[in-house]
Design a protein that fits this description.
about 110 residues; alpha+beta; hypothetical protein PF0899 fold; three-stranded antiparallel sheet; elongated
């Protein structure tokens, strides 16, 4: 379950920024998570609930912006949504694609007090 290490990293980032801002708690964490990021959301929720206990994020709310994966075909230049890295272009059927978005895993914003 790598989601626990991801959550611990998010907590570290949030606490570091909150301390630098002179805050006492983190009230909200907004995350961008792409559909190809490899994160299992149920595991993430479980890890989040457990890992934030006793930290500056103890009473925080987690907001997630899900980023739908999109790719561009390098043969015909069509842009299209994808669910897997190996999806073919729906226009020409080729597999030579460039993933435009959907691999994101980042802290978008923090609300501290």
């Amino acid at each position: 379950m790598h989601e626990l290490s991801v959550v611990m990293g998010i907590i570290k980032i949030a606490e570091d920024y909150a301390i630098a801002a002179g805050a006492h708690s983190v009230d909200e964490v907004e995350l961008d998570i792409g559909t190809l990021s490899g994160i299992d959301m149920d595991s993430m929720d479980f890890a989040w609930k457990q890992a934030k206990k006793g930290t500056m994020l103890n009473d925080s709310v987690k907001k997630i912006n899900s980023i739908t994966a999109k790719a561009k075909c390098l043969d015909c230049n069509a842009e299209f949504p994808i669910k897997n890295y190996y999806d073919a272009c729906p226009v020409c059927g080729e597999h030579l694609i460039n993933i435009i978005c959907g691999k994101e895993l980042k802290v978008r914003s923090l609300l501290v007090s």
